[in-house]
Design goal:
This protein is α/β, with parallel strands linked by helices. About 45% of the residues lie in helices and about 10% in strands.
Length: about 550
């Protein structure tokens, strides 16, 4: 985790703890606003906080700056330390229950002495929660569902944090095992959207590796594998590699179990120094680690070997531009010129600006007149920016399936990203019909974050994904792979179905700051998990082909 991410997380934790304690709401909002400001800060945060620096961090006052300087010094800020002491650890796990909120947690604690998930579950079973003012049976049912969700995400982290944790552990192990090969493996190497454990492959004997693993945490050898637990609490395992068999150990450490089972069906995995040699002995091309989930990659590797060519999945360099980018016109933190400059620096041919539509008042959505003025500004800047800037909008799909702008306004745009941003509690049939009606509007180019999920925060809303995918493919509407690490939506497990229906993916960052454009790299990793090739990606095409791809 980068310092910037750690700082934002600490500010968010402080705000949550203060909320549970019932502190001054203005103080709570200050920490919440600072967390957003730190997340979107475009510069070097640590350098800006260094003694003598005159760099101003927008949205951060003196008190918050002192908080952040304590983190730079690897100290726990006093306000956070005090808040942690004042709130029992078991209560903190209640914050992971979707929809519960700090105010309700405080009420449950004060009225029923609820001090954790177990207490809450028992109180629900005994009918005590439903009797509290402001709760009721419907509310209790949602809380019960939220408890199951909270239990399911314990110990998990988002993919970027998992990858950084893996890379840090590899560096520590390499220092402790000089002149021996050590590589990351497991879920992080396969680029799962959330990570619950870590795995590695290392040259050497299990006992020697176990002694070196003290740099990661307490470890022991069981069944020939070194096992332990990281400081984060996530378990790890290290697979020892015998001389000349590192490739085989690395494949086994990487998994997944379904992939290893599919390999075993072809014959025993041979001992080999490289992964390429091990796969080759089974008549397969080397399989990219992201794709190793037992979902058709073996057949793909057989076909590639028969054709005499390597497997070619999409790469970040295949993207010629992107869509779904927000600016300061709505809820972004970078203005149009900053987005254009950052996009050009990435080597892109185009960037699609899609600020929120008028109903998104919470996000500063644009009305028709502001949208028209933005279009003029985009056309003026595009002529001198060295990159083509496309004018679009992320248009809300309203509850009845209509779009947030009339057709005559939509027709003035280069592209339209249609997204659901509210009324998530609709039935599966209602939500499905809502989205189907929206994408049947000929102005829609891309269906944004199709299920509305927020990883480790919110479950997807109920929708018939296959019906939506099938209709989008028929119409030529691309389905977004929203690359923000908290979304990664469409789920990669649905991508093979989409490709089988002839559909296309748009790998978009949903960026709200110039640095957020780089989130497309996370989206590319997830696309690779789904077996996506460059020809399957809308924004691997030139701008004209991409925006005219809709079947009229």
């Amino acid at each position: 985790m980068t310092f910037q991410e750690r700082a934002a997380a600490s500010l968010e934790e402080t705000a949550a703890l203060l909320s549970v304690r019932g502190e001054n709401p203005f103080r709570i909002r200050a920490f919440e606003a600072a967390a957003r400001a730190v997340s979107g800060y475009a510069g070097d945060l640590e350098a800006a906080l260094a003694p003598g620096s005159d760099e101003r961090i927008p949205g951060v006052g003196k008190g918050i700056a002192d908080f952040l300087r304590a983190l730079v010094a690897d100290e726990i800020p006093e306000v956070l330390s005090d808040a942690r002491r004042a709130v029992q650890p078991a209560i903190l796990e209640l914050l992971a229950v979707p929809g519960l909120g700090a105010g309700r947690i405080r009420k449950l604690h004060e009225a029923l002495n609820i001090q954790g998930l177990g207490d809450l579950e028992r109180a629900i079973d005994e009918g005590r929660v439903a009797k509290l003012p402001g709760f009721g049976e419907k509310s209790v049912r949602k809380i019960r569902e939220g408890i199951s969700f909270a239990r399911g995400i314990r110990g998990r982290c988002l993919m970027p944090e998992g990858i950084f944790e893996m890379e840090d552990a590899v560096a520590r192990l390499r220092a402790a095992l000089p002149n021996r090969r050590v590589e990351g493996a497991g879920q992080a190497r396969r680029r799962l959207e959330t990570i619950s454990s870590q795995a590695f492959a290392a040259e050497g004997q299990a006992q020697d590796i176990c002694a070196a693993a003290a740099v990661l945490g307490d470890a022991s050898v069981r069944d020939g594998i070194v096992r332990g637990r990281l400081a984060s609490g996530r378990p790890f395992e290290i697979h020892p590699a015998a001389p000349g068999a590192f490739g085989t150990a690395w494949i086994r450490a990487t998994g997944a179990e379904a992939h290893l089972a599919a390999l075993a069906a072809k014959g025993p995995l041979p001992e080999a120094a490289s992964e390429e040699a091990a796969y080759g002995a089974l008549g397969l091309e080397w399989i990219p680690s992201e794709w190793r989930e037992g979902r058709g990659e073996i057949a793909g590797a057989e076909a590639a070997r028969a054709a005499g060519r390597p497997i070619r999945l999409v790469e970040t360099g295949d993207l010629r531009g992107t869509f779904h980018v927000h600016t300061t016109e709505s809820d972004g933190l970078s203005d149009l010129s900053e987005i254009a400059r950052a996009s050009a620096e990435r080597g892109w041919e185009y960037v699609g600006i899609s600020d929120h539509s008028r109903s998104a008042g919470y996000a500063g959505g644009l009305d028709a007149s502001r949208l028209a003025r933005q279009g003029n500004a985009i056309r003026a800047l595009s002529e001198r920016a060295g990159i083509r800037i496309l004018h679009g909008s992320e248009v809300d799909i309203l509850p009845d399936g209509t779009l947030d702008f009339p057709d005559e306004i939509l027709g003035t745009l280069d592209f339209v990203v249609a997204s659901v941003h509210g009324r998530f509690g609709m039935s599966r049939d209602e939500m499905t019909e809502r989205i189907l009606r929206a994408i049947r509007n000929p102005a829609v180019t891309i269906l944004g974050h199709m299920t509305g999920r927020l990883l480790l925060e919110r479950e997807p809303y109920a929708v018939d994904e296959e019906r939506v995918i099938r209709e989008a493919a028929r119409l030529g509407v691309a389905v977004e792979l929203n690359s923000h690490p908290s979304r990664l939506d469409i789920d990669w497990r649905r991508i093979s179905f989409l490709l089988g229906e002839g559909g296309r993916i748009a790998i978009d960052p949903d960026a709200h700051v110039a640095e957020g454009l780089g989130d497309v790299e996370w989206g590319v990793l997830i696309a690779r998990k789904g077996g996506v090739k460059p020809d399957d990606v809308l924004n691997a095409r030139c701008a004209d082909d991409a925006i005219r791809s809709r079947a009229k």
